[in-house]
Amino acid sequence: MRFVLLVLLLPSLAQAYVENITHGYVNCMACHISQSGGGVLTDYGRSLSKELMSTWQGWNGIEKPLFGAIENSEKIKIGGNIRSIQTHLKNDSFKQGQAFIMQQNIEVAAQYMQLWVVATVGLQGGPSSSATKNDIISERHYISYDVNEESRLRVGKFRRNFGLNDPAHTRLTKSPLGFGSNSETYQLEFSKFSEQDEIFIATDLGDINDPKSKESEKSFLINYARYIGSDSKVGVNYLYGETGNNRRNLFGLYSVWKLPFEMFFKGEADYQQLLSADETIHLMASTLTLGYQGFKGFTPYLVSDFVQRDLSKHNTRTSLLGIGTQWLPLAHIEFQVEIQKRIDRTPRRIASNIAWMMFHFYL
Question: If you placed Cys at 80, which of 30, 106, 126, 236 could pair as Cys (CB 3.0 to 4.6 Å)?
């Protein structure tokens, strides 16, 4: 049961490679229509997927939608993703493995003057036992307005821009803090960029389909990042959220640094204060990754995750140490493999060996 819950966190991944900061792309808008990264690529982003990110460049036009079978226009951009995964888990209680489609969607972005309208449509992924598998979903749909060359307004459904925009939503700085699978929410967001920094200010509108829901969180978020030279970035963010039952203060620090010898570091540390009528719970979480940009398109890495869901209770800790590699042989194609040693102390100590292999095709 624990493993089923774990893998169900995997389907909602976004195409975003934050380590590209170390190649000089400190903000996301050079490659993506979305100001916070992920989703539909710009034409320049597609060219980088061939020239910068893939081992082999392939033929002329390979980076275009469906290997060049479809042409983007100046005003219409097409994207989409298909992801599949093979998982494995073994501990002293059981052994389990599954293979399934995580994600299958199409995304379209259309421009009219200073407006971008972006929307996805697809089928819910997950194991065959998932009750919502193959339900029609729209992970993101929003309108973005270019106020000027430096500022944008966005309204609609999209991921809250807190911490590292890491596509692996099972990281322990994601799911335990409400940023896991299918966590996109309806927001109003303002963003501003300069040559030295960027800032995002957003308010979460809650569940607009059920405004009286006590489970839906309404929040205010601010995220500020400073560029360090042309290839590193340091950020700080804060979120205040309220539901019908509690409220929380969430603070975070994150950074992406280019290191010598083709190495890079990306890390995030978060502290949460959750207040309800009868108690206050303090949480700490972190994720640290050390990667090596080997031959073009091939990136091995080490990752360490930690969360303590209640700082007053030692048996609420989860820690993870993993080794993995990501390979993009050609534009549109990605393979990723990760092997993890995970220790859960909730409530007894459980040591698990976890491995997964993911295949990703993006339109």
Answer: 106
3-state secondary structure 28-92: HHHCECCCCCCCCECHHHHHHHHHCCCCCCCCCCCCCHHHHCCCCCCCEEEEEEEEEEEEEEECC
Instruction: Give the list of residues 6+ apart from residue 280 with CB closer than 8 angstroms, or none.
Output: 273, 274
Which DSSP state fits 261? Answer: T
Give CA–CA dist 201/332, Å, rounded.
32
Residue by residue, pLDDT tens for the chain (363 residues) are 444 444 434 444 445 677 787 788 878 888 899 998 888 999 999 999 999 899 999 999 999 999 999 999 999 999 999 999 999 999 998 899 999 999 999 999 999 999 999 999 999 988 888 888 999 999 999 999 999 999 999 999 999 999 998 777 789 999 899 998 788 999 999 999 999 999 999 999 877 776 667 778 999 999 999 999 989 999 999 999 999 889 999 999 999 999 999 999 999 999 999 999 899 999 999 999 999 998 899 999 999 999 999 999 999 999 999 999 999 999 999 999 999 999 999 888 999 999 999 999 999
Task: Kindly state the helix (H) or strand (E) to which residue 333 belongs, with its residue range.
Answer: strand 333-345
Question: Closest Cα to residue 177, out of 36, 289, 57, 318?
Answer: 318
**Considering the entire predicted model, what is its pTM?**
0.91
SS3 label, residue 170: coil
